[in-house]
Structure prediction request, 603 residues.
Amino acid sequence: MTAKILVVDDDSSHRTMLKAVLSAEGYQVQEADDGDTACRAVEKYLFDLVLMDLRMKRMDGDAAQKKIAVISPGTPVVIMTAYGSVRSAVEALKGGAHDYLTKPIDVDELRILVTKTLHHRMLEEENLNLKERLDARFDFGEIIGRSPSMRELFETLALVAPSEATV
Amino acid sequence: MPMGIHLDPGGSSAGDQGSTRPAHIHSRATVYLGMTMAVYEAARQSDLHHAMIMGGIVLALGGGGIYFFIVLRSYYLLNRTLQETRDYTRQVIASMVHGVLSIDTGGRVVSCNRQALFLLSMPATTIDPIDLKTVFDFQETGIAQTIDQGVPVMNREIRYHRDQDDWLPLLLTVTPIQDEAGNRNGAVVVLRDLSEIKRLEAQVRRTERLAAVGRPGAGVAHEIRNPLSSIRGFAYLLGRDHGKETPQREYADVMVREIDRINHVVTDLLDFSRPMVLEPEATMLSDLVDHVVSLVSADTKTHGIDIHVDCPTGMPPVSLDPNQITQALLNLMLNAINAVETGGAVRIRTSVLHEGEGVEVQVEDNGHGIDPEVQEKIFEPFYTTRERGTGLGLAMVRKIAENHDGGVGVESPPPGKRGGTRFTLFLRNMQTRAIP
Prediction:
């Protein structure tokens, strides 16, 4: 499954460039020209990563990122900043951004960061999924037994169930 | 005393002693003596009169004495009060931070306080009265008008030239002295030293000017870096489609490098124009120098450059912004390292200036030196002789020095040397700013 990335930047050339670079890497890229549009896109679709400019005319990256965190809490947001100052980056990270990049974007750095973030996101999701599945599948509610020894048995069952090993 | 004596006829009398009749003194003879009292009365009157006059005189003398005593006493008290008042006034005037002078109608100084003498750099012990006309231009400053017409001069800024190239900004106030009858007899001249205010004003102006550049600078950064980012990304993409060692790939790489160079300039310019907030703290200069030397040690090792540190460890801590000074010294050191060839030497030396007014750091190299006509320009932003330099390194040093109310100078070759360059960074101690 190809990862879906939302590129948010009010500079259309920059957006085009990012789309070209990320598409060439094999990602599915969607564009948004400001924070407001980005929020609506996040409401509609599930993205694996949002790459967003910090300074935009209608809704800046800081506000949009906070909104996205509410709409889709699991989606990592990477902020791009042109100031190159530590302060703006710290502000972005404090606001809940996953990471940040400084403009002009170093494409190699971008590629590595995207891969890393997606991998992180994938692991997180997988972890969550497994936990859910574990809870759903090994709900031993129908077997009667509350004594400690029975509970120990349920735990052992849950542990060995997913494996192919003979018990 | 005149008096009449009447003798009784039957009796003998002292006056009849020469008579022929045998002296027969009758024992029952009566002598009547009649005296006129007028003379006696007059004498008594005269006595009384005399006594009264004497009494009057004694009384007058006593009263006079008491009066004299009272007058003397009050004179003494008055004198003492006057003396105290005079001393107090003198102390008040002497303790004033402003210079105060009183002059007569001819412009001669009648009295003045220490501060006035200090500001006008005149000796404290002058026998001849100072003629203020030789110090100030009376027409230009308006003192003449104050003396002649009683028009005061209020807060006029003047430049007082102490010598050829040293002048002091002074705030001049001149008010006429008038007696109760309204006669003008001179003027009071008040001098305020404006140099500290001027210095702060200059600092504020400089900060404002830099802030004015810095504010749009942030917006400009965005406007420049966005397109740079696009071009850089596309150049990367274009190069990627071609194999390594192809000219297209090489061109694309050059584009990326050049964009990075532009970005470097933008970054430097932004750093340069960003208003610098001074955060002074007590710093051991020797520690700071050691830190800077350790930062450049990798560079100097690869180029085989000797670094001599001449920095007394016993120096008292100096109040300065350690981050800014580290950057300034680093720039000077890198500059020196660039100027010397392999096997060269760089010397860094620190010294405390007299009375702890500030410190001086000298960075000296034995490199190729700087031409005299270029020396003026090296501190200007964007002036560079290096191919890859942005020309902001030394400009930054100057900015930092001025931020510390100091300065930076260059000598090439240094005095007594045949080649090389010496940069001298002067930093004023922020805490012990001189207040005269």
User: Anything to note?
Assistant: Residues 200-273 of chain B form one domain. The two ends of chain B are 96 Å apart (CA to CA).
